[in-house]
Amino acid sequence: MAWKTPKTSWAGQDAFRLDPDYERIRGNLLYLRQRAAAITQKPGYGQMQDYTVDGVPLAEFFNRVEENLAALAAAVQPRPEYATRTFVPGDLVWDWRGLERIEGMLLQIYNDLNAIENGQQKLAFCLGGGLFGTFVS
Length: 137
Hints:
Blueprint: H1 18-39, H2 59-76, H3 96-119, E1 125-127, E2 130-132
Antiparallel strand pairs: 1-2
């Protein structure tokens, strides 16, 4: 998966679409999960479904995204402003504010992972005449 810039300028007239919105959110969650596992710790993730326009997303569809986002945030950099929701059948699901919250959290976690990775010191060493790693000043 490749990182796709989140949409952080949601407005009241914007509609949520499975493609490209859900695919971008899902792809970014999977990308960040992979990076977090390599840099900090592996977050506990639930399987996110491949939904199409033929299927009607149920509450578990939205809850799985929220649960995975919470697990990712906890594994990388817990923050008090991170808040997720839980949906029950019949609830109104994401509006533009919820989508902006989700994609804003994804972007912040992405930036946190970049900061963690850039702050890690690397050790240079020689082995059999070859130079490995980078020098730390």
